[in-house]
Amino acid sequence: MISLDNFKSGRLHTLLTSAFSHSDLDHLVTNMIGLYFFGTNIGKLFGPEFLLKLYLAGALGGSIFFLVHKALIVPSTEGYRGWDSSRIPGLGASAAVNAIILLDVFLFPKNIIYVNLIIPVPAILMGAILIGTDLWRVKKGRGISQVQLI
């Protein structure tokens, strides 16, 4: 898991390894569904090596954002209740999968995405919702989530 404590103690590998673990089955399944549907498309377009690099870049970017958030934003928020924010861990592939989903959305904004397998939404609108939801959750102090997409 990524945390300020792990980072400060030299466990830099957690910047990437945290993107290969999940806290619960629902989190894992949601991320893998997004990775399968959107990753397949990106992999076909640019190749598996590019897909892996994009995944790792998304994971690294998400971990860095998580650390910055915990170091600078969490301690200064009013909702902070005395928890040591350096020990709060982050886990999951959401940032890496979101990088892949957003590239697909930006490349094919007119594609239709089926939210929860039934609600057709234009990809550009889904991308805006995904980014907006993540920004709102960060502002509220809840971290970044993965929206269930197919």
Descriptive overview:
The chain is mostly helical. It has one domain (about 5-140). About 60% of the residues lie in helices and about 5% in strands. It has 6 helices and 2 strands. It has helices at about 5-10, 15, 25-45, 50-75, 95-105, 125-140; strands spanning about 110-115, 120. It has a two-stranded antiparallel ribbon with strand order 1-2. Helix 3 crosses helix 5, helix 4 (about 50-75) packs across helix 5 and helix 5 (about 95-105) runs antiparallel to helix 6 (about 125-140). About 30% of the residues are buried. Mean pLDDT is about 80; it is low at about 145-150. Pfam families: Rhomboid. It is a multi-pass membrane protein.
- The percent range for helix content is 55-70%
Structural class: mainly alpha
Largest sheet: 2 strands, antiparallel
Number of domains: 1
Low-confidence stretches: 144-150
- Give Rg in angstroms: 16 Å
Report mean pLDDT, rounded to a whole number: 81
Tell me the strand order in the biggest sheet.
1-2
Number of helices: 6
